[in-house]
């Protein structure tokens, strides 16, 4: 087969710099694959076009490229829908591919795309070897995925996987260290993504926002009041702002989701034929949908309902198509802790501060603490002499009160009068005079070539530009994306600071699976 509906995607991307959050990194070029699914519409992987500044596509029948843009994107399930904008009618001669059904084990499939090693389309064949919930490395979400033994390499990203002439998956990652173990986004998630685009539904994949424990111990089952033959999982913690916040509570036993029973090992039987993690019960559902939950609370069986919400975490997992939040006060650079910031360390899962890693792995959002505010670096100035070592720590209190999140912290600090006291997780005490900070801010921003004292998403972020910043009449997006030149003094200082903290600017986080 010639697969005329398979196209090549050319992306120019510019990623934010979480070490120096007021600037962006140098633009990069990469290629991926996609498949025509509608009039002028192309389905590809979200990680192919994440942080894209310019996109082009090329079809097999022509050497010319067409300009495209992102019409809809879901970083959760690693899918993006592109539309060709110039020239119009570029894909009129390409029949859209049809989305098939979820394949069965041992079904034969063909992976089509443009991997490294050549310029023309490549097709590899294999069989379906596994269908279960897997970790999506692009979003760190655990969602339904299909494993195939066909070769998936760099450049196959976003390319279609065909079965019986229909698209039965979108290639998105491969298992590192394995031979021909690739994974694809399955049809239920693809359909939900495309149908949601047509219906205007939110692109996020909902999540429960709960930590659970399996109930395989007989004594634990009896002590919780479960009868013989009953099964489920024990609720340990509930994420503030998540789907089951206010619906479930610790020590509840979750038995079933929309009638699908949960086994004591935390699995359900998906579609009657695949036993996998109970998160699969949300496959194909949207934010705003209502699910029925069967639970036991204090030995009483009951039915409750929950409205599905996006995933929320104390430490956000990878973010895309957005700029980092930051606040410069007295030379201290404050940011919310995130995986993107952790990834500024080389081998961050071993070398990042242990406090940060504890929050990442075990922290849960609560009403009192929705983000971890951290000090990422200190821009040396006479106002912060003696405080230069107080970086890579979290803020414990501001004037005796813990910060709820970054917005709360910035609001309170911006409105502070007189002497401000900040305590850190390592026991450090920072005292600054608010008037002196206000006077020093232009000097510090100018010295380090920082365009503004805070990101635009924070309170006051639209009115705090440094007057000396050239290009202040540019569009908001242009100002937000502009970084300093690699040859500038600002860039050299940031690079030196990274070296002194043992950091790396490595962009790609290492993980079990990598996007392809």
Write the layout of secondary structure elements.
Elements (H helix, E strand, L loop, with lengths): L5 E8 L14 E11 L2 E4 L1 H4 L2 E7 L7 E9 L4 E8 L21 E6 L8 E15 L4 E8 L11 E4 L2 E10 L6 E4 L1 H13 L10 E5 L3 H6 L9 E6 L14 E5 L2 E2 L5 E4 L3 E4 L12 E8 L2 E8 L19 E3 L2 E5 L2 H4 L5 H4 L2 H9 L10 E6 L14 E6 L7 H9 L4 E6 L4 E5 H14 L28 H6 L7 H12 L12 E3 L1
Antiparallel strand pairs: 1-2, 1-4, 2-3, 3-6, 4-5, 5-6, 7-8, 7-10, 8-9, 9-12, 10-11, 11-12, 11-27, 13-14, 14-15, 15-16, 15-19, 17-18, 19-20, 21-22, 22-23, 23-24, 24-25, 25-26
For the record, what CATH class of the largest domain applies? Mainly Beta
* Average pLDDT: 90
With strands numbered from the N-terminus, the spatial order across the biggest sheet is 1-2-3-6-5-4
Number of domains: 3
> How many strand segments?
27
Q: How would you describe the shape? A: globular
Counted by DSSP, the helix tally is 10
Distance between the termini: 23 Å
Most strands sheet: 6 strands, antiparallel, barrel
The amount of helix comes to 10-25%
Rounded to the nearest angstrom, the radius of gyration is 25 Å
CATH topology of the largest domain: Thrombin, subunit H
Unreliable stretches, pLDDT < 50, 5 or more residues? 464-513
- Strand content is 25-35%
